[in-house]
Target: Imidazole glycerol phosphate synthase subunit HisF
Amino acid sequence: MLSKRIIPCLDVRDGRLTKGIKFKGNVDIGDPVETAKKYYDEGADEIVFYDITASHEGRGIFLDVVEKVASTIFIPFSVGGGINSVQDMRDALNAGAEKVSVNSGAVKNPDIISEGAARFGNQAIVLGMDVKQVPVTADIPSGYEIVIHGGRKHMNMDAIEWAKTAEALGAGEICVNSIDADGTKDGYELNLTRTIAEAVSIPIIASGGAGNPQHMYDAVTQGKATAALIASIVHYGEYTIPELKRQMSAMGAKMRMSW
Model:
């Protein structure tokens, strides 16, 4: 059985670490480089960096911040935000990322997934999905809709069908972020995560809603995720990564202990 991963998420706006609730009300909470180093030292399995306004503002990712983070950590590092072309992918990887997360850019141009996978390998291409629960319609039979541009633009696309398409195009992993659960600390959207995990064969990262170790354990068991993305509970000092790993391990999850 593979170890389950804990992945701190660094949402960055204007070069600063930020956090909101349900993609709204973001506040400045610190320096992303210092925070990434802290989580690396604590034993994070991977770190994700999202430039959360790049797509909405029509610009590329802040590569200088990516370079600074990459120089301080020595674990897998995934970056996303404003990745709209193979060149954008190359630039992010050259800046020190090991994976690139495509979200809005892939919805608008799905071929970027297959092109990136062909150039850099499936393992380097992560599909980021921002998902909101909506009424069931003919176009959205699952009741889960894809939303892009940082939660601003509804696409009338079914999330489960998009996950299947992305896997077929060559995505090596999917990060499923529930907009409804984001920042609430009320738990992950387990039905969403599980439904997508059962629809594809690639690893799924649960994102949005972590409030305690039980939520994370539920995500990797009931939700069938291979990893749990976290933000608020570590950003605000409620838990350390070693504490989360110890408690999840005590519940029965296989964790990579690094101390």
Summary: The longest helix spans residues 32-42. The chain has one domain: 5-251.
